[in-house]
Amino acid sequence: MASPIILPPPTLETSHLSQDDPSVTSLSEKSELDILSHVLYPDDSYTPDFVYWADLPLKQKVRFVLNVDKTEIAKEWAATKALFKRSKFGPLAWYFNNGILPGAGLGLEGLVIPGKVFRFKISY
Fold this sequence. Notes:
Elements: H1 29-40, H2 58-86, H3 90-104, E1 111-113, E2 116-118
Antiparallel strand pairs: 1-2
């Protein structure tokens, strides 16, 4: 099967817009980079100078990876604390619903018996 042809996007016609119209705004390259930088250069892969983490020297690479690990651990602990505040078995229920049941491959999240549907979920 042949791969689809990807065409570049058509150019926008702006000749009908007057240059004196204050409602027409144009984006500079700097503001476009500010808008798209979190998508193009995620914080867990690129430094603030837009350098990919694997291209860094060894010492900076280790420092970058340890920093990313530290921030992710802090986020996970904050989420775990929030689950504890809801219920003291909240983290256990979340792990059972999102880790054990789907990962077991047993199909326990939806068991179909003729005429009836049973859904298993632990609420917290």
